[in-house]
Amino acid sequence: MAAARNRLAPLDYVEEAIAGAALLVVIFATCWGVVTRYITEQPATWSGEVAGIGFAWLVFVGAAAGVKYGSHIAIDMLVVRLPGPLRRGLMLAADALVLAFLATLLVLSVQFSIDAWGDPTSVLRLPRTVTYSSVVVGSLCMLVRFARAAWRRWRGHSAAWLTMAAPAGAEL
């Protein structure tokens, strides 16, 4: 088990690495656009397009990181009040629904990305697939991370990939 864990260690933070790189691209492209527009008076026409591509990657892969950490909102005030078997059945149905949604999103985003290959962006003339593949990567990461969390939840473990201790006195 430890050997398998060590082999997968480089993949543990793939969402954070991609989203972090995308954030740097957005910041750089936006700053460069401002500098070239107001200081050099020769605007970099590509900066808005690059920032948009980086933002798409930041949003979709960042959402996958949220799934991994279990930080997306969940309103469970009614579910926790249900009797055990009914609660587990409802949770199973909800997990199945989310997995079906993510699988559908993955399939449709792959099809959409393939279809967008011949459609270039307006300034850089990159295939729009560069932008749309962020949905493919993000939905794949979300599907894998959510499936793992659901499996852990059904095995009686914490569903979050990493649980963080709350500061003292932070309890509600």
UniProtKB/TrEMBL annotation:
The chain crosses the membrane at residues 21-39, 51-69, 90-110, 130-147. Pfam families: DctQ. It is found in: Cell inner membrane. InterPro entries: DctQ (IPR055348), TRAP_DctQ (IPR007387). One of its GO terms (cellular component) is plasma membrane. GO terms for molecular function: transmembrane transporter activity. Residues 27-155 form the Tripartite ATP-independent periplasmic transporters DctQ component domain. One of its GO terms (biological process) is C4-dicarboxylate transport. It is a multi-pass membrane protein. Keywords: Cell inner membrane, Cell membrane, Membrane, Transmembrane, Transmembrane helix, Transport. The complex comprises the extracytoplasmic solute receptor protein and the two transmembrane proteins. Belongs to the TRAP transporter small permease family. Part of the tripartite ATP-independent periplasmic (TRAP) transport system. This is TRAP transporter small permease protein. It comes from Ramlibacter ginsenosidimutans.
